[in-house]
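Journal club prep — side note

Before the paper discussion, L.F. wants everyone to see what a predicted structure for a comparable chain looks like in token form. Sequence:
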Amino acid sequence: MKSPADEALARAAVDALTGQLALVPKPGLPDPRDLAARVTRRDHGGLRWSAQALVPGLTAMAAAARRTGEPTPRLRAELGSIGRCTEHSVGLAGGGHRGALWTLGLLVAAAALDPLARGADITTTAKRIAAHPDRTAPRRPSRGSTVSAKYGAAGARGEARAGFPHVRRALTSLAASRTAGAPEEAARLDALLTVMSTLQDTELLHTAGPLGLRQVQAGARGVLEAGGTATGEGRAALEAFDADLNERGWSPRGSAGLLAGALFVDALPVTP
């Protein structure tokens, strides 16, 4: 049985995802300018539409966690099964969001398991869920797992099993930027660049190889070192970085999903 609290968590997660999509510019990633320019290769509008198809699946994940009450192997298998069904539904709605679904699904389940948890406590609970193997998963390797094995990258599974360190880094960056007086959009863009600067993004490894990945990481660090996106110099560096990635066709999608996860955790109301 699903509760209003389960759906509230799911909708908060989708709001975080669409909030990430609304940022401009995101280096190499879809943003609202695609609609104005009628760009079809990245289809920002389609991604916003298909994000809504995540709500039923994320609600079911929250309900499964609340019903189970512990981060058990059974819960991990149930989340995997729900996630695969949700991927199919999202595909029918236009596709996308596979990495974000993995991240948000585990974080939503963790938040449902411990409704009073916030911040790093949620990522720690997600780590306990992800530590269990999904014995019902298809045996064929995914592209991400193949790339992870080839290059020794942590990949999405490694990120989850480590307790989402890049979600935690993004949360720290958000807090620091807000304390420094940065506008909210700049704080979120700086959090994205913070993730991008160190993440071993398997999508980038697949399309650009290790040298390309290091170039993207260096570009993200360059924007932050120029003062971040709230400054004129940093904003100019961001625009140049975005133009370069778009020209090369490199898309750091893993960073976008992890920022969505951080925005979800950040948006949970503070408990008394």
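L.F.'s comment for the group: Confidence is low (pLDDT under 50) at residues 35-42. Keep this in mind when we get to the figures.
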